[in-house]
Amino acid sequence: MTRDQTGTGAFAMRHVRRIGLLSAMLIVLAACAVRPGDGSLQISDKPLSGATDHTVLVATTRKRAEAPATIFSRGRADQLDHAIATVSVPPTHVPGKIEWASIPPGDPATDYTLRSASYLDDAGFVAALDRELLKRPKGQRSVFVFVHGFNTRFPEALYRMVQLKHDSKLPQVPVLFTWASGGNVTDYLYDTNSATIARDGLERTLRTLAASRAEKINILAHSMGNWVLTETMRQIRISGRPLPQSKIGIIAMAAPDLDIDVFRAQMERMGKPPKPFVILVSKDDRALKASNLLAGGSGRLGSYQDEEELARLGAVVIDLTDVKAGDAANHGKFAQIAQAAPELRQALSSLRLERRVGTTETTVDAVGNTAKAAVTFPLKILTAPITALSGR
């Protein structure tokens, strides 16, 4: 055996061991979770009993499901598809949580329940979007796009979108962009490829939203969904057909499962954004530690600790380390702070932004104090690419 063959074999063995260890770590972290499978999206016609309805528009690169009461599968579609769904949240809802029914379709008094769902073609999606926007008064016709992460089944993506909308109490039209995640902890490589395939679908979705009556487009991506988001933003940038900046609102990246070197290269290619990205990080994110192991230890953006470099690249960094997670992996903290979204958005948008003139410590203190006064969670805005001063 040649030296090259020996080296190749050793590399392959290391890669196999990393995948095995990652899978084992993620299986342990997910061991206690009870998750919805095929047939879990049965429609409930029971009286609402004080529950609150939310209508969600869906854009997806998933295949339509053959199994009943499933809607979309783990398979990859040949083209972008759409749907609309209405989900009720029970009056007993606890912020940050999803109250899954033990037996579908569930009870609206105690569980999340699906009230209606139907597929849409392209024209139907645009028409439904316009109807939802026109229900809002001028000045509130914004869209909230959520891009989920790794190991996410369609019911989980749909109900998480509803939880974020319900807890945030923001009037924005919720649009779920769901890509073909396999929905199992052993599907990391499958999910990585599915996320890459989804770039064109997300670009098309964002262009559709930008051409609509929407006044602002706000985006939240979680975990591996940030790979879809940043790659899409990069390809839009180099296409020569940028989205209208007047319509771009907050772009937030929660626990981004994204190689820091890749993010650095993406940002250098795109250039510093006119509005800084908001990156939600947590130093105790176990899922990102597992992902980092598989990636060879180069570092994941969601657990990166050089806030100064991220600021130079064009980001506001929010540290959620002290926020109590609702999952064993500490990977879903963004869901816990959704109820503080109005206050956090106000804290960010009410700041008068100027070019940096002081030290890092002064900038951090000014922004951090403003944020702490505005929200009730133990989160900190660590640094920004600009000096932030109180607008009052």
Tell me what you see in this structure.
With 392 residues, the chain is α/β, with parallel strands linked by helices. It has helices at residues 3-30, 122-134, 154-168, 188-197, 199-210, 225-239, 260-270, 286-294, 307-313, 333-336, 341-349, 360-374; strands spanning 52-64, 72-89, 113-120, 142-147, 173-178, 216-222, 248-254, 277-281, 315-319, 351-354, 380-383, 387-390. The strands form two sheets. The chain has a ten-stranded mixed β-sheet, sandwiched between helices. α1 runs antiparallel to α8 and α4 runs parallel beside α6 (225-239). The protein is globular.
Based on the model shown, name its key terms.
12 strands, 392 residues, two-stranded antiparallel sheet, 38% helix, single chain, alpha/beta, globular
Q: Please identify the oligomeric state.
A: single chain
Tell me, what's the shape?
A: globular
Poorly predicted spans? 28-32, 350-378, 383-392
- Can you give the mean pLDDT? 82
Helix share bin: 25-40%
Number of strands: 12
Largest sheet: 10 strands, mixed
Kindly summarize this structure in a few lines.
Helices cover 38% and strands 22% of the residues. It is an alpha/beta fold. Helix 4 packs parallel to helix 6 (225-239), helix 5 (199-210) packs across helix 6 (225-239) and helix 6 (225-239) runs parallel beside helix 7.
How would you summarize the topology of this molecule?
Elements lengths: L2 H28 L21 E13 L7 E18 L23 E8 L1 H13 L7 E6 L6 H15 L4 E6 L9 H10 L1 H12 L5 E7 L2 H15 L8 E7 L5 H11 L6 E5 L4 H9 L12 H7 L1 E5 L13 H4 L4 H9 L1 E4 L5 H15 L5 E4 L3 E4 L2
Helix pairs in contact: 1-8, 4-6, 5-6, 6-7
